[in-house]
Amino acid sequence: MKRPKLRKASKRMTCAKRFKIQKKVREHHRKVRREAKKKGVSKRVKKDPGVPSSAPFKEEVLREAEQRRLQIEEQKEKQRQAKKEERAKKRKAEKEDGAKEPTAKKARQVEAAEKRSEKTRDKGSKQFMCSELNKVINASDVVIEVLDARDPLGCRCPQLEESVLSKNKKLLFLLNRIDLVPRQNVNQWLQHLQKEGPVVAFKASRKYQHDTPQSKKKRFVPSNDVADLSNAASCFGGSCLVELLSDYATSMKEGALLKVGVVGFPSVGKSSVINGVKGAVVCSAGVQRGLTKHMQEVHVAKNVNLLDSPALVASPSNSPACLALRSLQMEEAQQSVLEAVRVLLKQCDKTQVILQYNIPDYRNSTEFLTLLAKKWGFQKKGALDTVQAAVTFLNNWTGPRMSYYCKPPNSAAPPAYMSEAVVAQMKEGWDLQKLQTGNEATMNAVRFPNRMNGISFVSTGPTSGLLSVSSDSPPPATTSAEPESQPQVDLAEEPQHTEETKKTRVQFQSVDISAPIATSGDTYDFNTDFN
């Protein structure tokens, strides 16, 4: 089929339109020239044609022009040097005057900088965090102590619980991160903690959370008949907690606002619990310890407000294993990250650690971190970065990643401050039947890990905390000794390299080669002959 001829658009225009465009162009050029004239911008500099070849004495004229150019450049260089020396003298005079007598402007700047640094330093200090924690406890009607389901006993603070009970506040236990612990272990801990007070089983959201409360209304809420609800974006136990607190607020006083404080040690998931209940990111949460610095009030129901609090400060008198997991910083525990990893490995079964991280057998913590750094690809200037591997290892243990579990204690004797009268008073006002039904629904919805995929961990008991720290407090005391019964001990511990041992040279002793070598294993221990 023959294509029809396409008619191209004509570029012809009327004379009036063409003359109008030319007039606009002339006006624009005239305006540009006028502005350039005001600014002193001249036209393009004409090129120097130079001395014509037919001119007489051409070489002498060029020589004189070159000499004149060199003189002008020399004069300009002298002027530049003089200005530089003058500026240097001026700076020196200002510096001397400032050292002798600072001006009012500089004094104000220095004072403002000192105030800013002091404010930022105070927000991260122990005194500020303890004062904010006490503020949350005093302003709350009910205090929720968040416990990590992997080590609930290690997350309990006797000083905090005793202070809450002495002020006639209701204490509620919240067992967080139940999706990282085997189902049987969670049931055992629920039965153990229910003897002392109400316990809520909880699993906070980890991956996806809504940026604003308004976006929560647009999300799709899956029903309970969906096969797998145990994804990382789901939160379980939040509705049960809100209903429990709303019923208690209604029974306490109709129309009254119930303030609930959420407290606990670092990295137990306090802010994540509030975000999961709210359904939006309203509190900053992350792997970093002690991310929350001040009290924050969040409205979650008609008559319930949650109070986010800073992390509880662990006492330096705790065991090294407690400080490795519960202290705000490694400096507070007076131990490095390498020492913290060595202490934690003592509390675990070596075979389970090898299976969990899929690494070969290791003899000590240094070799363990070397294998982890090689597996994870941590390198620093051509060598394996064991410090980064240790930091990542600790973040996995304190964050919502590592699956390990502890067994409840055999002795069912509660603490001294948890008498029968106190326990009965703590359980008054709560709808325990509804709480039990909600916990069962949460347990049925969450998918628990297999016991063989986790690591058995030996808990060191409750962690002592500090509710008040004076500004002139003495240096922290030495950490207490570790428990004698350990499931696995390193075969060869690393020697502590002090400054004196670094300066001394290695001294070799004569060894009788013909003598028999006594070894305890397959590998030869060089420490027996070379000390």
Summarize the helices and strands and which ones pair or pack:
Blueprint: H1 15-39, H2 58-100, H3 104-123, H4 126-139, E1 142-148, H5 158-166, E2 170-176, H6 183-193, E3 199-201, H7 213-216, H8 238-252, E4 258-263, H9 270-278, E5 296-301, E6 304-308, E7 313-314, H10 320-326, H11 337-346, H12 350-357, H13 365-376, E8 379-380, E9 383-384, H14 386-398, E10 404-405, H15 420-427, H16 432-445, E11 455-456, E12 465-466, H17 499-503
Parallel strand pairs: 1-2, 1-4, 2-3, 4-6, 10-11
Antiparallel strand pairs: 5-6, 7-12, 8-9
Helix pairs in contact: 8-9, 8-16, 10-11, 11-14, 13-14
**Uncertain stretches:** 208-231, 472-524
Q: What letter string, H or E per element, gives the SSE order?
A: HHHHEHEHEHHEHEEEHHHHEEHEHHEEH
Number of strands: 12
Structural class by sheet pairing and helices: alpha/beta
> Could you tell me the mean pLDDT?
78
Quaternary organization: single chain
Strand order of the largest sheet: 3-2-1-4-6-5
Largest sheet: 6 strands, mixed
Helix content: 40-55%
Radius of gyration: 37 Å
Quote the beta fraction.
5-15%
Number of helices: 17
Which shape, going by the Cα principal axes?
elongated
Euclidean distance between termini CA atoms:
100 Å
